[in-house]
Task: structure prediction
Amino acid sequence: MDESLIDLLVALLIIGPMVAGLGCFLIRRLPPIGKLVIAVAVVMIAAVLSLSYEVLSDGTIVRPSEDLSSFGVLITILDLALMLGFVYIAWMSKSPLTGVFAVIQIAVMAFIELNGVEEMGNAIYIDQLSVMMTFITSVIGSIICVYAVRYMKHYHGHGRFFAIMLLFLGAMNGAVFSTNLLWMFFFWEVTTLCSFLLIGHTGTERAKRSAITAAEYTLGGGAALILGIALCMQYFDTVFMDQLPIGTGIGGLALLPLALFSVAAFTKSAQIPFQKWLLDAMVAPTPVSALLHSATMVNLGIYLLLRLSPALHGTGTLLSVIGAIGALTFLIAAVLAITQGNAKRVLAYSTISNLGLIVACVGMDSSLALTAAMLLLLFHAISKALLFMSVGVVKEKIDSEDIDAMQGLRDSMPAVSAAMLIGVAMMVLPPFGMFASKWLLSEALTSFPLLALFLVLGFGATLVYYAKWLGLVFTGGTERRRFHDEGTHRIYLVTLMSIAIVGMAATAAIGLLLDELVNPFVSKIFDPALEMNDWVLATSIGIFPMLALIALGIVLVILVLLPRRMPPMMDVYACGERGNIKTGTFYYWSEDRVVKTTEMVNIGMSILLIALMFIPFLMEVTA
Amino acid sequence: MSSVLEQAASIALWALTPVLIGLMLGLDRVITARLQGRKGPGLLQSLRDLFKLLSKKGSYVNSSQMAFAYLSLALYAIAAFVLITGSDVMTAFLLSGVGSFLMVMAALSVRSPYSHLGAHRELMQIMAVEPVVMLIVLSMGYVSGTFLGSSMDYVMFLSLPLAAAAMVPMLVIRLEKSPFDIATAHSEIVSGPYVEFSGRTLGITKLAHWFELAVMFGILLLLFDTADQALGLAIKTVVVLATVFIIAIIDCSTARLTRWSMLRFSLIFCLGAVALNLLVLYIIDLGVLG
Result:
C-alpha cells in the first residue's frame, strides 16, 4: 500500500472521529447526528480493516518522530491545556485530590520538558497488538456509538454526548498507535477527561459524584504514569516504548518506572483496590458503560501492561506481585459478582474480574499465558459489549436493571434474550474464544501451582454468577406462540446482531487470529506455544478440538431449527401450587458483608500495591 | 494398526459408559440396601429405570428447558468421549463443567420455585466441586508435563495421594449422597433441579448425569493408570468397587449437612489437601532443580 495512504488511514482513525465529534457538537440535533455517527462507524470499520490488512501482510508500521516534530509540539501544548482543564475541574467540583494529581502532572511535565526530551525514535508504531486494540476500539466502539443514537433519545445534550464519545474513540486509537510515552500519556489523559465528562453527562448529583471519583482515581494513575515516564528517561534514557530494554536486564531502582506504569495500568483497568470508580460509573447511560467496559478505557491499562510485557519479562518478583494482584482481583471480584442483584453491577464486577485474569496472565510471564491474555482481551471486549447493550435495551423496556426484574425475558423479548445468551455463551461455552482462552490459561497454569489456587476458585464463581442471571432471563412458562414481535427498535437489533457476528467470526477465525495477530506479538519475547493444525488448537501439553466443537454447534442449531415431533407441552408441576409464581434469586451475602469484605480486601490489596512499589528499593539494597 | 484398534476399543468403551455407570449405580444400591438391612433392588435396577424413562413419551414445559437439557447431555457425552479416547483431560473437564452449567440453566428455565431452589443448590455444588477437581486435573498436568490422558504418567496416585483422597468427597457430592445430597435432598426438596422433568427428558438428564459421573470417575482412575494393561484393569476395578463401597458407607452413616458446611469442607479441606500435595511436589522439584 502507498505510504501516504497508510498515513491517511492512521489519521482517519485518530483525527477522523474527533473531527466528526466536533461536527456532532455543532449540529446538536439527534437525527442528523445519527447519520453522521453511522457514516463515521462505516469509515472507521473500513479504515481499521485496511490498516489491519496492511500490518498483517507487510508487518509493523513505523513513523519516526523527526517527521512529526510539529505534532510533538502541538501535543505538548494540548497536554498543558488538558492539565489546566483538570485543575479547573478540581476547582469547580471542590475535589482537592483531583487538583493535587493535576498539579503533580503539570510539575512533572514541566520538569521533563525543561530537561529536554531526546526525540529520536518512532513516534507511531503500529504492530499486531496495536491492530488488535484498534480493532476493538474502532469496530466495537463505533457499533456502540450507533447503538447510542437510539438509546440517547431519552437524554439531553446530544451534541456534547456524541462529540465526547467519538473523541474517546479517537483518543484510544491515538494511545495505542503512539509509542512515544509522552504522546501516549496525552491520549491517556484525554480518555480520562472523556470518561469524566461521559460519566457525569446526566448532571444529577450522583452522576457528578461518580464522575469526580473516576477522575480522582484515573488522574492518580496518570500521575503515576508521568512519574514513571520521568524515571524512565532517568534510567533508560528514552521515552519510546519500543526502545525499552528487555526485562531480564533490569534490576534495582530501574524497576521503579515499571512499577509505576503497572499502578497506572491498575487504575485504568480498575483492579482492586482501584475498582470503586468503575462500579460508580454505572450511573452513566448504558452506551457509556458499554464503551468504558468493552471498547475503550479499561482496555488501555491492559494494553499498557501487554505493551510493556517485553520490559517486564524476567523481572521476577515484580512480575509475580503484578500477577498476584491480578489473580486476587479475578477471584474477589468474581465472588462479589455473585452477591449483586443489579445486572450492570454484576457486569461491572465481572469486567474487573476478567481484567484481573488478564493481568494474572501477564504476571505469569509465559508464552501460553501471554497468548491467553491477548485472546481474552479480544473476546472479553466483544462479549461485554453485547451484554451491556442488551441490558440497556431491557432497561429501556422494563425500566429496571435488576436481575430479578429480568425474569421471563425470553417470553417478552426473545431477540434480546438471545443476545444475552450469546454474550454469556461467549464467556462460558465452547467453542467461543473465551472458553478456548480459559482452556489455554488452565494449561498455562501448570507451572504456577499457587496462582492456580485463586484462579480455579474464580472460574467456579464465574460460572455461578452467569448461571444465576441467565437462568432467570430464560425462566418462562409454557409457550403459546413461537415468534412474536417484541418491539425492539431495529437499530438495537442491527447493532446487537453485528456484535454477535463479530464474535462468531472471531471464533471461527481463531486460527487466523493466532497465526497473524497473536503469535507474531508473542514471538517478540517467547516461542509461540499455541498453534492451530487441522482445526485443532495444540500446545506442547494439550489439544483443544475446535472444529469438533464448532461442528457440534452447527449440528445443534440445525436440530433446533428442524421441525420435529415434540412431546405434549405441560405447565410446571411445582408441587401442585398454582397462580403466578415468581421466584427471586439468591445473593448469598448480605450487602453489609459485601461492604465489610470490600473494605478488608481494599486494605489487603493496598498493602500488596505498596509492596509492589517497594520491590525496586529492596532489590537496590540487596543487590 | 494397534493404535486404530485402541481407538476403536476406546470408542466402544465410551458407547458402553452408560451401561458401566448404570451397573455401578446398581451395585451402589445393592450395597446400600444390605447396609440398611433391606433386600433392595437388583444390580440392573438403575439401568432398567433409565431404559423405562427413555421409552416414555413424557412432556415438557418450554423449549428452553428441552434445549438446555439436550445440550447438557451433548457436552457431558463429548467430555466423556474426550477423556476416554485419551485426549486432553483439561478439555474434558472444562466441557463437563459447561454441561453442569447448562443443566442448571435447564432447571432455571421453568417457573417453579422447587426447581429454582434445586438449581441454586446445584450451583453451590458446582462451586464446591469445580475448583477442587480442576486443581486435581492441574496437578495431574503438573506431574506429567502433559494434559493428554494417554501420555500421562503411570500410577500418579503415588505422587498425588491427597488428590486421590480429595476425589472421594467430590464423588459423594456428585453422586448426591449424604452428607452432601444438597441439591436433590431426599425427603426435603426431592430431586431438586430435576423436579420439573418427566418421561424421556428426565431420562435425558439422567443419562447426562451418568456421563458426568463417567468423567469424574475417569479422572479418578487416571491416577491409577499402570503400564501393564491387565494389571491396570484389575487395579481400576478394585478402585471403583472400593470407592463405591466407601461412599455407600459414608451415605449410610452420616446425616445431611448444610450448603455452607459443604462449601467450607470442600473449599478448605479438600482444596487445601490438593494444594498441599501440589506444594510439596513443587518444593521437591525446586530442590531437585536447584
Summary: The beta strands of chain A are 61-64, 122-126, 531-533, 536-538, 543-544. Chain A touches chain B through 63 residues (CB under 8 Å). Residues 233 and 239 of chain A are 6 Å apart (CA to CA). The mean pLDDT of chain A is 87.
